[in-house]
Write a structure and sequence with these properties.
Shape: elongated
Order of helices and strands: EEEEEEEEEEEEEEEEEEEH
Structural class: mainly beta
Strand content: over 45%
Oligomer: single chain
Number of strands: 19
Length: 184
């Protein structure tokens, strides 16, 4: 038997939660406050987080748009800088990172593109310089590097083991079919 919904407001000092209880558990929308400022708008289903959630900066602008299912992050999550620009976009499945994850610089250019499976890096990880040039690429399987990563200078030249850019002719030489490593 379902009890009648009851609106509740619990406060402690300047912080609190407002929502609706059904059978003693939060159900429907809930708002969380701290120091008198709303910091989150959440949805509950029978006491468990479920559905869209918005986290807010103290000025009221969104800091994150999340989705929950059965108390776990599930679906697309977008995190914002205080000026409203997207900082990161990720996907979750039952609380674990899964699929594409993109992190952006304040100007909106891509800083990192990674792929996850069951919460671990899986697939190609790419990081970029502020000018958009590839900075690093590394292939992962189940959270571990599969092969040595490649690093690149801001001008696009590959870096050697000491972090120094390869000269353009050495890079060209390496790309020729059937050639041995370029002379030192």
């Amino acid at each position: 038997m379902m009890n009648k919904p009851q609106d509740v407001s619990v406060t402690r000092g300047e912080s609190g939660v407002e929502g609706t209880l059904v059978n003693g558990a939060l159900h429907g929308g809930a708002r969380i406050y701290a120091d008198g400022v709303m910091l989150a708008i959440l949805r509950y289903a029978h006491g468990r987080l479920g559905g869209p959630a918005t986290l807010l900066y103290p000025d009221g602008t969104p800091s994150a748009q999340l989705n929950y299912a059965d108390d776990k992050l599930d679906g697309k999550a977008v995190y914002y800088a205080q000026d409203g620009t997207v900082q990161r976009e990720v996907h979750y499945v039952r609380g674990a990172l899964s699929g594409d994850s993109k992190t952006y610089l304040p100007d909106g250019s891509l800083l990192e593109h990674a792929r996850y499976r069951q919460g671990k890096l899986h697939g190609l990880l790419e990081r970029f310089h502020g000018n958009g040039q590839l900075a690093e690429r590394q292939l992962y399987g189940a959270g571990k590097p599969i092969e040595p990563g490649e690093r690149y200078a801001q001008d696009g030249r590959q870096l050697d083991a000491d972090g120094k850019p390869l000269s353009r002719w050495r890079r060209w030489w390496h790309m020729l079919p059937g050639t041995s490593p370029a002379p030192q």
